[in-house]
Amino acid sequence: MSGAALGLEIVFVFFLALFLLHRYGDFKKQHRLVIIATLLAWYLCFLIVFILPLDVSTTIYNRCKLAVNSSPAESNGSYVTLAPSRQKCFKPWSYIPNGIMPIFWRVVYWTSQFLTWILLPFMQSYARSGGFSITGKIKTALIENAIYYGTYLLIFGAFLIYVAVNPNFNLQWSQLQTIGIAAANTWGLFLLVLLLGYGLVEIPRSHWNGAKRGYLLMKTYFKAAKLMTEKADAEENLEDIMEEVRKVSESIKYNHPLRKCVDTILKKCPTEYQERMGRNMDDYEDFDERQNNYPSEKSLVKLHKQVIYSVQRHRRTQVQWQILLEQAFYLEDVAKNETSATRQFVHTFHSQEPENKIIQYLYTPTVEWYWECLLRPWFYRVLAVVLATFSVIVVWSECTFFSTKPVLSLFAVFIQLAEKTYNYIYIEMACFLTIFFLSICVYSTVFRIRVFNYYYLASHHQTDAYSLLFSGMLFCRLTPPLCLNFLGLTHMDATISHKNTQPTAYTSIMGSMRVLSFIADGFYIYYPMLVVILCIATYFSLGTRCLNLLGFQQFMGDSEMTSDLIDEGKELIRREKRKRQRQEEGENRRREWKERYGNRDDSTRNRTVHTDPKEPSFSETNTSRPLSKYTRSNGRTERDRIELLQDAEPLDFNADSINDDPLESDSGR
């Protein structure tokens, strides 16, 4: 049973990471190595979060066995009985045998560190490179990461020289390994507290505001105005880049040595631009080597990089605009249906995607009305209160977890109460809920933050390779200090509890932080208290107000700029709604016309087919005179024909419908 629990969690976490990556990444268009590296990074980080509660329960059982073996005891089946107090050490259902967890944590931890510090930064530069060959991309990635890797080597080399020269230090390999782990965890903890302080306040507040009537709709209008500006900017940028590509494609002919590079760039362009450039290109002219206005390979590499970025950005804004329109239309429908007397949810537009029949059967218009208009706001309010309670407990425990006598950390109190009764299911559930809530607060902030267009995780398969790899780096750097912080909150870390007890398998691979006492007794204990200041700043939206003052429009209810953007977004949504309504009305009229006169058209077509074969048809008359398109039998001169073409009304051209003489059009019809 113990191995089954570990195996089930490993499989479940893999499919969870695969599902999230499929939501944000694009398996069809992105490189396989990017998908595999990002999936591995996300999978390892999620795996640590899900497996750590099993490590805690196993450690508590091992402590009980050590306490029993140190006193007279007798064995009784699957548990050990302490003779004086008759205390029983039941084996947990998810018990993992000794020796498995240390190896497991060592493989997971060092693999994640290799990804975050070496492989993923290199793959980031490789993915953004505009090179036309694998060698060129690797060369570019090495050059861009030379400073990155050189800085770490310089710091590590200086530290080794200092240790070797100073006679007071006699460090061994295990201590050097611990120092490296402590340095990585210190960097991760610094970023962890910043993200945690934002998530502890913003997640409950977002759910509470989501229950307010009209709040989500106003915020959607605000997003529509901002997204339209970004969409127009992306279209303009794409037009400029495509104009440069057109000039390069016209200057470099088919027999130029760099023509293969140009063809590679053209393949990355949208289809409509490829067709337009293909029509305007004349490749039958040879290039002249004496001309010096040909672009260099370096400039083509830069242009290739710009094309990849502009096309990805343009595609992302187009998809996000359509998704935002659907969201706005649905929220407007919710606002209209709130006053419905029939209690039947009515949609303005039908869903373009076919819905599942089971969902249609269960999620009826009546059920949808009760959920969207009545139950959903209350559900969001209750959920916001629960999340806010968890946030208060986390903030209190972060400020008091260093106190062991008395124990002030609420998470440590819960675990110690369950440890006395050896209720392993309660221990694992409490540990899982705690670390899961901490992970949600941190990881959701990683998914929400946006650094201009440098880093942005967009759902519906619109995240670029660079952002996916960057998110994998952040996860691998944040997860180990997150787990250490969780173990400190529950007093399962001997460095915090100051008890000479068996440590968890996870803390055993981290080594003793006593090698760096100023980090173990100082930074790890007092720096998490900064989360209180960050929560207060987030509650009063100080960061949002600062960004708004700097010119980055943020959604603020008391801002005049926000009101203007809401009005602009409302007008944009109204315009798109009218356009969608006209399209549906046109489709409905064509459908009604086809249903009403479709049978009549079929019978007319059948009568035309069964006419007398001796009677020549109009098509036969035209095909019997193939040269009549280009010659005139009535002796008109070329000048007369040109004048007739100039005086004619510009109708749609159809070569088969041209007759010899305009006077014959009636008879031909």
From TrEMBL:
List the residue ranges forming a coiled coil, or say none: 224-251
Instruction: Tell me which Gene Ontology terms the entry assigns under biological process.
Output: adrenergic receptor signaling pathway
Q: Would the keyword Disulfide bond be found if you checked this record's keyword annotation?
A: no
The annotated regions of Basic and acidic residues compositional bias extend over 582-617, 635-644
Cross-referenced InterPro entries, in alphabetical order? GPCR-associated_LMBR1, LMBR1-like_membr_prot
Composition bias, kind Polar residues: at what positions?
Answer: 618-634
Q: Where is this region: Disordered?
A: 576-669
Membrane topology per record: Multi-pass membrane protein
Localization per Swiss-Prot or TrEMBL: Membrane
Kindly state which keywords UniProt assigns to this record, in alphabetical order: Coiled coil, Membrane, Transmembrane, Transmembrane helix
Acidic residues compositional bias, start-end: 658-669
Residue ranges annotated as transmembrane are 6-21, 33-52, 103-126, 146-165, 177-201, 378-396, 425-446, 466-489, 523-542
Cellular compartments per GO CC:
membrane
Query: Which family is this protein grouped under?
Result: Belongs to the LIMR family.
Its protein name is: LMBD2 protein
Q: Native species of this protein?
A: Ceuthmochares aereus
